[in-house]
Amino acid sequence: MNGAAPIPDRLLERAPQMLRDALTGFLPEPWRWLVNAVIAMVLILAVFGLLFAALTLAERKILGRVQNRPGPNRTGPFGLLQPIADGIKTLTKEDIVPRDADHLLHFLAPVILLASAILAFAVIPYGRRLVAVDMDASILYFFAVGATTELAIFMAGWSSHNKYSLLAAMRALAQLISYELPLLLSWLPVVMLSGTLSATGVVAAQGSWKAGWFPAWNVFTPWGFAGFVIFMVAALAESNRSPFDLPEAESELIAGHLTEYSGCKYVLFFMAEYFGMTALSGMAVTLFLGGWQAPLPSLEFIPSYVWFAVKLIALLLGFIWIRATFPRLRIDQLTRFAWKFLVPLALVNLGTAAFWSLSAAWPGPLQLVRLAVAVLLVAGPFVLLGRRLSAGLAPRTYAYAP
Amino acid sequence: MMTALLIIISLATLTAAAAAMSLRNLIHSVLLLIGSWLGVAAFYLWAGAEFVAFAQLLVYVGAVSMVVLFAVLLTRRSRTDVAVAPDSLGRAFWAVLAAATVLCVLAYGVLKTHLPASAAPSAKVTVRDLGNLLMGPHAAALIVIGLILTVAMLGGVVIAATDAPGKKEDAP
Questions:
Q1: Residue B165 — very low, low, confident or very high, per pLDDT cuts 50/70/90?
Q2: Does B60 lie in the same domain as B135?
Q3: Considering only CB atoms, which residues of chain A are within 8 Å of chain B?
Q4: Whether B63 and B8 share a structural domain
């Protein structure tokens, strides 16, 4: 790499912005800003819309493989055109609204849900220079727009004028509220130790190398690892993914608050679920996995947005893998898990992060003590709480029929 | 431009609030109330207070709205079960009195506050400044508020918890 240009100035790093400036550079200032913003919006919608289509196909294919069946393979080569066929099918389906439904709210619920999911994409830094809106409080913004999800689900359940929808919506709200807390608590240490609420700032804080080659990502510290796991579990629950997909347990609850939805609106709900999952994964990459940073100094020649995409897709595939592996929880197990396990762990994790930050300057061999204490602070509560949670219940004994 | 935006935001907020008070369907009222909270968040954004705006969104639209909705749903038997007339004259009197007291306190507070006539272009306040202020000069107030909220939450849990012995089939 000797003699090469510094990384931020390489051609591929600058390419997206050069392209944009070539398109809009001639415009006078307020118009240029406006057109740039519109380009960012269109790009985000196009990229994540396509990712949504690819994700549905990947999910069905992988689930099929895990369950020892081929998955969709009739539409196009290897079933690659399946998302298009699905799209045409759902768009042309009849949209049935119950007679007694609250028509306006019934219509607004999927729209609000999807809008809030899309809004969250605005602040994620996709690359060294690729962030649509860079704000001082962008992480707070991300979780604030996510808060409208609960409202949309309530509107969907209530406006359907169906007791199953309403009951399921209440259960969904109980779940979302329960997991909101560990979700918010899990990223607090990141903000505490980075000293900033801006997503770009958090990524920049993870930009150094330890001993010249080891990435200083948050996930590689004891508190960061615990925070990452808590964040991902809470993200699974917040985006209604299996094993926390109780709100629309299609095989048991007649799809919960989605009972009275059909056709295009039903797909909007699904789109919002996948968008929410993608946005939360993107935020997890930003907060814990070093954002767009390369994992090794020698790999920095690959542009930053490629690294972000690799990490994002890895997390999304992890979501699908988890869905294929774990059975669905029961509602009481679900809330108990959040309140008695994740919330205390996240609170302890705040203390661990504080200790890690305050002991950063300990000399030489004391660093090993620091590491040991931090690992103990993470693993100890995990074991103790886990034992209390499953006391008298696990390991289960099964009696087989003679 | 900015003034026009302010007028639009305040009109939308006040309209939503007024509609929330006049509607007979309680759920619609709550949703409109949430709409007016959104308007307040928009106002904070207009005033350049990003952090306060997003906190308003997170706390009011995300959390307080759920408390209100649950309260409405758990206390009404059907969606038409709305008492319009007051229970008795005494209750109406006390309700009006309480509302008038709150109004007087708020009006007094608003009128007594000295607002600079022309807001000087203030320096950009970052989240870091806010944090330093909250943890430094205003730490006592923050701790007291946190304590009060914790006590309120514990009280709520104690009132709501029924200490019935669990049945065997309820075990996880």
A1: low
A2: no
A3: 105, 135-137, 140-141, 143-148, 150-151, 154-155, 158, 166, 170, 173, 177, 180, 195-198, 330, 332-333, 336, 393
A4: yes
pLDDT in tens, B26-65: 888 888 999 999 999 999 888 888 888 888 888 888 888 8
A182 in Cβ contact with A233 (< 8 Å):
yes
Residue B109: inside a domain, yes or no?
no
pTM exceeding 0.95: no
- Dihedral sign for Cα B38, B43, B48, B49, please: negative
Q: Do B61 and A147 count as a contact with CB atoms less than 8 A apart? A: yes
**Cross-strand bridge partners of residue A209:** A215
In this structure, is residue B130 part of a structural domain? yes
Chain A residues with CB-CB distance to B57 below 8 A: 144-145, 147-148
Q: Give the tens place of pLDDT for each residue, A71-81.
A: 888 888 888 88
- As a whole number, the mean pLDDT across chain B is 82
Q: Do B127 and A150 touch (CB under 8 A)?
A: no
| Pick from B27, B57, B66: CB nearest A158 | B27
CATH number reported for the structural domain that contains residue B72 in this entry: 1.20.120.1200
Q: Residue A181 corresponds to which amino acid?
A: L
The C-alpha atoms of residue A331 and residue A34 are separated, in whole angstroms, by 47
* B6: its two tokens: 């302010």
